[in-house]
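B., you asked whether I could sanity-check this one before it goes into the benchmark set. Here's the sequence:
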Amino acid sequence: MMDPFRIAFFGSSLLSAYWNGAATYYRGILKELAARGARITFFEPDAYDRQKHRDLEEPPWARVVVYGAEGDAELLRALEEARRADMVIKASGVGVFDEFLEAEISGFGRFGPLTAFWDVDAPATLDRLERDPGDPFASLIPKFHFIFTYGGGDPVVTGYRRWGARMCAPIYNALDPATHYRVPPDSRFPADLAFLGNRLPDREARVQSFFIDAAHRESRRAFLLGGSGWHDKPLPSNVRYAGHVGTNDHNAFNSTPRAVLNISRESMARYGYSPATRVFEAAGAGACLITDAWRGIELFLEPGREVLVARDGGEVASITRSLDDARARAIGEAALRRVLAHHTYAGRAAEWEAIVTGNAKSLYARQ
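And here's what the prediction gave me:
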């Protein structure tokens, strides 16, 4: 790859994880791409009060451009600057002007830079297209040089190819060991089982099943719920609500409880091969992770040795009841060894670079 390789990236936010679960993923990938010689400019809108809830100042490895969310000239200036890069990437779920950005950026590639759509919720996107084949995005897919996803495996790749993608590749979530690691227990987060996740429509029913129902079954155990939006959710008395947990507290949240629960969003569980950011954050902290069952988990962590897998709230309750400190520590330590060896963002960045350099010339030739 040329040095420096200039990347213009349009995403929800790099600077704020407020109602923005993709922030950790963006940070992990782009930091490592910068370490490999890329020059990153991240364009994000001033939307959803994220700029008021920043948890990261502009990092040394990326320049951040914040544009207005009201459709003014700032967005057009951002696009004009972006098209001078070597690659322009549009992530899914920016939150404002998504259709406009996708239409504009997909059209850059014919006479300009490489273009990519980076889908951080590919199962939901593909489900949306199946429901509405006339969706404007469907006709744009073949125009992008690359489609990247943060999960989904072969089912997602096959789905995107069916819609005409020239190149589709998953770049999975991973661990940044400089950001997520084990810390001493914190008096704010003691629990037998903890779950951290924002309240979202396609997650709530699964949280009810895997976490809240498990808490009802194990009334003598202490459960901890973190994340935005749960303040008015009826909870059993043994569930303590911690509210929004900022990224600076994720290590403490993961290091303190006996076990940490991962609950996939409905569409991601259905497609499989979609480990959430939380999986690697928890493993990086040496946490004993319990996850809902989904296809492909064994590609990332070995069930029974590096992760515990539950098919429903009853199994979560049973695992919580039988889990002791010694076994929890052993599972957490095994998971930590696995992710450090095989699932870091440095490795993901190397995969991404190999895909781009290996395919760019042929994709340009097919324009």
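One thing to flag: The longest strand covers residues 38-45. Otherwise nothing jumped out at me.
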